[in-house]
Amino acid sequence: MPSLCLGWGVAQVSMAACRSFGALMAARFFLGLFEGGCLPLFGVITSQWYRRAEQPMRIAAWFGTNGLATMVAAAASYGLGHIRSHLLRPWQTIFLSVGLLTILSAPFVYWKLDNDVASARFLTDHEKAQAVERLRANQTGTGGRDFKWSHLAEVALEPKTYLWIGMALCLNALASVTNTFGPLILGGFVSDKSASTLLNVPFGVVQTVVIVLACYLAQRARLKGAILILLMLPVVAGLAILFSVHRDPSARATLLVGYYLLAFMYGGIPLIVTWIVGNTAGTTKKSVAMSVYNAATSAGNIIGPLLFDDKDAPAYRPGLRSCLIIVVTLVVVVAAQWANLVLLNRLQEKRRVRNGKPANVVDRSMESTYQAMGAPPDDVVASDAAAAAGRLGDQAFLDLTDVENDEFIYIY
Known about the structure:
Structural class: mainly alpha
Largest sheet: none
CATH topology of the domain at 37-80 and 135-345: Growth Hormone, Chain: A
Helix content: 55-70%
Strand content: under 5%
Radius of gyration: 23 Å
Number of helices: 18
Shape: globular
CATH class of the domain at 37-80 and 135-345: Mainly Alpha
Distance between the termini: 29 Å
């Protein structure tokens, strides 16, 4: 992670030094290269430190900074954009400032971020053992250093991988709407382009609130698929406003509301990340699954702008119509993944019975408060539960995949 932060910062600073299209493309390539590894690594690290019930809010804590960054970037861009220099253009000043801050963060990340629970410098040996034990019910392990080709094969052959890819493509293709309509709508309120960036501050506020609220509801209700589908309702409303309202000065406020409603789509990204890391066991498999997901998000970012053609300006109705179709497709894919995970749990129950284990196992990783994996449910006699649970949990730290471990329980 420190290496990614350092490389990311250097790439940003390099943007300020670009004087040709080729140099700019090279800097952008390395910017994407170092940025591309961050989301998968953030997700994997979170899954190695927290119980599955705790992961949504932890992911919201770091992903929600995207909304905060939108607010800070809007204000900073306005201020830095007014710096007059014969050497640097305003956009170069912005990249130079942000890049230097990113470089300065690398030593701090190296100092404070430990690899995993077992090597945490701020825990005693006894606390490390306790921290590892509380992760047993996750059945996803605590990390490993060996690359396993069998894990890679599972990712390539599983239907749920391609459903994750479908979600990433749809959600990030939709994000292009904000890039297309944001400048058009915000530019209509003020003549100064730098001042129009300040209107992105409320967008960042909505983004942050939605991310935190969506993850909180998913954690409380223990239903990620349902919350993800509900998040699409305001997005549909925003798209409908942009599609139906005429582009004239009297409709600017209405169009702005429609634009801000699109911020709800960003609440879906941390939910999908939580869904993936919570339903994927095995270090290699989880790392590959998150990498594939992030690659799909990049593909979605490429596809999105292609939906909008300059000849359709300023309404871009064909592009908006395509986005509405994408939302419907996303809902269908989420529902399909939900049904797929339910089916996988049914198959796991049958496997446990064949292996002489109880079909129904209490998923302690999703309890609101920590309980040891062998603790009996309230309606089960402790002595009977002890006999059934005595063999459960022994495979939790063997770096098995969710397919290899019959005790793994998929979450919805």
